[in-house]
């Protein structure tokens, strides 16, 4: 334990530090132009989305699968742990309520299936989209799909060059010289007018590229890629057929929802449609992941998702990467496939032991965080579509919030009156401590609402009101200690303030540690509203420590220098009557316990 | 000297520890009543825990949320959750049997002009059901383990045990009040319970800190038994306990008052009741349950028994004789 002199001499400096802290929080508020806390579902309403399961035959999914989906969605939606989103079943549907208006985008991401697979690339090629992007460097990706939809009106045309869309007649450009195998540069044979993944079999019948057609070198005259022919060794002919038929220029083929069988080879598109791939069976899947976090890659500004594998997954991952490492281009790549779509397919520069991996892609902070959350909580066992999105009003009446605030103010006023009556002059310290605590809490809640999605619900507000008691207690503990020291009559107020602090500090820290442990355990282990509440509890405990250490103590130390307090003026709360110092009448038969 | 003045000067000396039989009996009775209530009446769980019915309709004339809520309440539906969703209303109620929901559809149609067939009724599952409650429960268990571990280190295992017993005591009694009063248990009240948890522990910790300090000085030659010293410590922190409790309870009492008298049924009232009862019981238990329990545990230790025997033989006072007689 530190000696009492450690915080003895410079109360002014500590107070300035506190002022700086308050100004920093206040400044953040001003910079972000956020002056009111964000409110939760019960007080401000939010967005309600109904998700309907999509099953192959339209039948109801089994109850337990739906329950599992509810739990995963709940984990994802409450990923950060401080929002009080609600997830409930309603018949076959799942209803998600998220506080705040205009949150339907967030819910869309929550409802994605997130089946993750790691598959070795067996063959790949650039699509017209990529070629066009490379050629024109046009950032708008939606140009190419429209260009290439034109030829799809001529169905059942084999991979004939005549069907090539005009704009993508420049596959040869590939200016970056990216190593691509482009045996099949024609993206258009998949001419099915309804290219949803459901009727892929259908499409296979219509489009005619036979395996033999793909087997032959068939170098595209325009292609100047160094590896113009795909190595079909080990590729299932049926998959090869699918691959030939796959039109990655059509966004429908690269949307969410393809449930790829991890045990089979698979033809897939890159998420932006720029490449298509034949992929080997999945050697590592999402359930092999123990945890996923979003972060910035070392030495770059690029957002990545970092994965840690479970031990079995780590072995498989190590095997997969060394296989890829020992293979020829393009088989030296491992594709990361999410919901049937390739997010990224990096070259494996060396085998990766140790059970860690990084997914890079065109992530920003938000998308990286979202993907990490999705992977962390596992894949949904069902596919969902959004059937309705509503903006809903608060679940509690306006009167409840008003009532809560009014009674909170009344309660605070009572506390102020009581403190002033009981502690007189020192009551001012108590009241000012509460004011400082209130300012800190308010600014912290606003800043956290803006930056961490923290939302106040009615129980939070009541919890904050109750925390007033705990903040006041720290003061009371300290003051009663000062009184003990004064009672012994040996010390001046200035000395008593310091000696009492050492004793009071220990009590306050132990008591606050208990609260803080409680908050952390509950935050980590529970979900939804309970976790949000635990967060608020931890926050107020921290604020209590800050206020006592940085305001109450230095402020009392300053006051102790004033004559009014040091001489024990009757209104100071440190008078002889209060302290029993001068009382020798014998009515004080109890000694302080320390003398016992 | 009047009680008020003595309180102000901190000169009180109540034999809390000595009256342990009274406190134990009082607590036992309260616990039995609470358990009886929990078994007999059970808790009135809210829609969030049990699931319920959702009515969705579009009124033809303008109505306020308040009017819709009153319409449902008049039909005897407890605490409906009324929300607007665009120009539609969404009302979540407890699970209604078919006859009830049919009648409700009729009433809605009559009151708000929506054709009966356009009043949509769906059942909704518990948003705080199974998984959420289970996780909260496990969180609670881990919480207790963590607290016991921490208090065992910061103080000693016996203090940790006494603090946790007092905590459970508070929770059971608060739950008992809910069982008997029939107040609805909603997520908000659950959070109220959690606040009590923290509060009750906090209170006990401050008292125990003082007991630890005082009893640390007890040696073979001391003039006090453990119970006497603990009682002194208790009296010493009594002012603090009462002041702290009063400061914490005042706002809650205000919320409870406004919640019951002005607002009537609602979350605010349910939440404030949990807090109010929990805090009153928490203050009582940290003084009258946790400390006597700790003393009961500690007086069994040979070191303190020796002190008690020695003091009893030299006529060292009632407390010493009791301690020696009870455990010797």
Automatic annotation (TrEMBL), chain A:
Where is it located?
Answer: Cell membrane
Alphabetical list of InterPro entries matching this protein:
SecD, SecD/SecF_arch_bac, SecD_1st, SecD_SecF_C, SecD_SecF_C_bact, SecDF_P1_head
Record-annotated Protein translocase subunit SecDF P1 domain positions: 67-121
Residue ranges, compositional bias (Low complexity): 138-163, 181-196
The species this protein was found in:
Nonomuraea ferruginea
Where along the chain is composition biased (Polar residues)? 164-175
As for membrane topology, the entry says:
Multi-pass membrane protein
Q: What is this protein's record name? A: Protein translocase subunit SecD
What region holds the SecDF P1 head subdomain domain?
A: 277-381
What Pfam families is this protein classified in?
SecD_1st, SecD_SecF_C, SecDF_P1_head
From TrEMBL, chain B:
What is this entry's stated membrane topology? Answer: Multi-pass membrane protein
Where is it predominantly found?
membrane
The reply on keyword Aminoacyl-tRNA synthetase is: no
Which key words are in the record? Cell membrane, Membrane, Protein transport, Translocation, Transmembrane, Transmembrane helix, Transport
Q: Does the keyword Ribosomal protein apply?
A: no
What's one Pfam family here? Sec_GG
The record places domain Protein export membrane protein SecD/SecF C-terminal at 109-299
Where is coiled-coil annotated? Answer: none
Bilayer-spanning residue ranges:
21-40, 136-153, 160-181, 187-208, 246-265, 271-295
What Gene3D superfamilies would the database entry show? Multidrug efflux transporter AcrB transmembrane domain (1.20.1640.10)
Location in the cell reads: Cell membrane
Q: How does it assemble?
A: Forms a complex with SecD. Part of the essential Sec protein translocation apparatus which comprises SecA, SecYEG and auxiliary proteins SecDF. Other proteins may also be involved.
- Report the function annotation for this chain: Part of the Sec protein translocase complex. Interacts with the SecYEG preprotein conducting channel. SecDF uses the proton motive force (PMF) to complete protein translocation after the ATP-dependent function of SecA.
Q: What does the sequence similarity comment in the record state about its family?
A: Belongs to the SecD/SecF family. SecF subfamily.
HAMAP family assigned: SecF_B
Q: What is this protein called?
A: Protein-export membrane protein SecF
Origin species: Nonomuraea ferruginea
């Amino acid at each position: 334990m530190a000696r009492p002199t450690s915080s003895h001499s410079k109360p002014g400096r500590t107070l300035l530090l506190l002022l700086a802290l308050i100004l920093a929080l206040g400044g953040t508020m001003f910079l972000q132009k956020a002056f009111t806390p964000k409110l939760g579902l019960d007080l401000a309403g939010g967005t309600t989305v109904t998700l309907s399961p999509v099953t192959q035959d339209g039948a109801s999914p089994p109850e337990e699968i739906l329950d599992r989906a509810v739990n995963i969605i709940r984990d994802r939606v409450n990923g950060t742990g401080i929002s009080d989103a609600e997830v409930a079943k309603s018949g076959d549907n799942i209803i998600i309520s998220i506080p705040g208006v205009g949150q339907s985008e967030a819910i869309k991401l929550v409802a994605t299936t997130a089946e993750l697979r790691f598959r070795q690339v067996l063959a790949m090629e650039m699509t017209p989209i990529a070629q066009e992007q490379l050629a024109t460097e046009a950032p708008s990706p939606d140009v190419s799909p429209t260009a290439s939809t034109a030829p799809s009106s001529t169905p059942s045309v084999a991979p004939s060059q005549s069907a090539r869309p005009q704009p993508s007649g420049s596959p040869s450009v590939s200016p970056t010289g990216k190593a691509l195998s482009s045996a099949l540069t024609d993206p258009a044979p998949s001419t099915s007018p309804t290219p949803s993944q459901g009727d892929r079999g259908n499409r296979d019948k219509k489009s005619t590229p036979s395996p033999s057609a793909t087997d032959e070198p068939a170098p595209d005259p325009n292609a100047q890629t160094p590896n113009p022919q795909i190595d079909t060794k080990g590729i299932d002919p049926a998959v090869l057929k699918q691959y030939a038929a796959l039109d990655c220029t059509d966004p429908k083929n690269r949307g969410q929802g393809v449930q790829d069988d991890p045990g089979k080879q698979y033809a897939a598109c890159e998420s932006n449609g720029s490449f298509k791939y034949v992929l080997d069976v999945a050697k590592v899947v999402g359930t092999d992941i123990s945890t996923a976090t979003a972060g910035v890659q070392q030495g770059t500004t690029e957002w990545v998702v970092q994965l840690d594998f479970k031990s079995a997954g780590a072995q498989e991952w190590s095997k997969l990467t060394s296989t890829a490492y020992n293979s020829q281009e393009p088989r030296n790549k491992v594709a990361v496939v999410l919901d049937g779509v390739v997010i990224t397919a990096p070259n494996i520069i060396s085998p990766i032991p140790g059970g860690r991996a990084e997914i890079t892609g065109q992530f920003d902070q938000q998308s990286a965080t979202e993907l990490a959350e999705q992977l962390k909580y596992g894949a949904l066992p069902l596919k969902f579509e959004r059937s309705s999105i509503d903006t809903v009003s608060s679940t509690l009446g306006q009167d409840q919030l008003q009532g809560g605030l009014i009674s909170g103010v009344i309660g605070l006023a009572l506390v102020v009156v009581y403190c002033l009556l009981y502690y007189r002059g020192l009551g001012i310290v108590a009241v000012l401590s509460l004011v400082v605590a209130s300012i800190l809490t308010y600014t912290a809640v606003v800043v956290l609402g803006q930056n961490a999605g923290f939302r106040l619900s009615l129980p939070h507000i009541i919890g904050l009101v109750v925390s007033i008691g705990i903040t006041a207690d720290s003061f009371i503990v300290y003051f009663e200690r000062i009184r003990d020291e004064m009672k012994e009559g040996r010390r001046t107020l200035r000395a008593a303030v310091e000696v009492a602090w050492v004793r009071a500090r220990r009590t306050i820290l132990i008591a606050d540690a208990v609260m803080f442990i409680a908050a952390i355990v509950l935050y980590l282990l529970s979900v939804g509203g309970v976790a949000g509440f635990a967060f608020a509890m931890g926050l107020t405990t921290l604020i209590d420590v800050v206020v006592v250490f940085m305001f109450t103590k230095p402020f009392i130390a300053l006051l102790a220098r004033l004559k009014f307090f040091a001489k024990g003026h009757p209104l100071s709360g440190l008078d002889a009557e209060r302290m029993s110092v001068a009382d020798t009448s014998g009515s004080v038969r109890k000694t302080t316990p320390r003398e016992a | 000297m009047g009680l008020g003045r003595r309180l102000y000067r901190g000169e009180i000396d109540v034999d809390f520890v000595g009256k342990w039989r009274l406190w134990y009996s009082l607590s036992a009775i309260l616990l039995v009543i609470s358990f009886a209530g929990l078994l007999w009446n059970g808790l009135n769980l809210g829609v969030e825990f049990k699931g319920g019915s959702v009515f969705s309709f579009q009124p033809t004339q303008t109505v306020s949320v308040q009017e819709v809520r009153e319409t449902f309440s008049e039909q005897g539906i407890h605490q409906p959750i009324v929300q607007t969703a665009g120009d539609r209303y969404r009302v979540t109620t407890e699970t209604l049997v078919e006859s009830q929901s049919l009648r409700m559809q009729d009433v809605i149609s009559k009151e708000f002009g929506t054709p009966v067939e356009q009043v949509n009724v769906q059942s909704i599952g518990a948003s705080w059901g199974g998984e959420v409650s289970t996780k909260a429960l496990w969180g609670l268990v881990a919480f207790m383990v963590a607290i016991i571990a921490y208090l065992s280190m910061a103080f000693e295992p016996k203090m940790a045990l006494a603090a946790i017993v007092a905590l459970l005591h508070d929770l059971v009694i608060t739950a008992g009040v809910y069982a008997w009063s029939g107040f609805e248990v909603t997520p908000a009240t659950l959070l109220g319970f959690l606040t009590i948890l923290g509060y009750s522990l906090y209170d006990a910790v401050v008292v125990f800190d003082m007991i630890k300090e005082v009893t640390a000085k007890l040696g073979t030659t001391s003039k006090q038994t453990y119970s006497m010293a603990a009682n002194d410590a208790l009296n010493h922190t009594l002012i603090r306990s009462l002041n702290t409790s009063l400061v914490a309870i005042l706002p809650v009492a205000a919320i409870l008052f406004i919640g019951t008298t002005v607002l009537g049924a609602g979350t605010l009232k349910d939440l404030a009741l949990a807090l109010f009862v929990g805090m009153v019981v928490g203050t009582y238990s940290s003084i009258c349950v946790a400390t006597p329990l700790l003393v009961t545990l500690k007086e069994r230790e040979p070191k303190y028994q020796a002190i008690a025997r020695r003091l009893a033989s030299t006529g060292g006072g009632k407390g010493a004789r009791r301690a020696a007689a009870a455990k010797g």
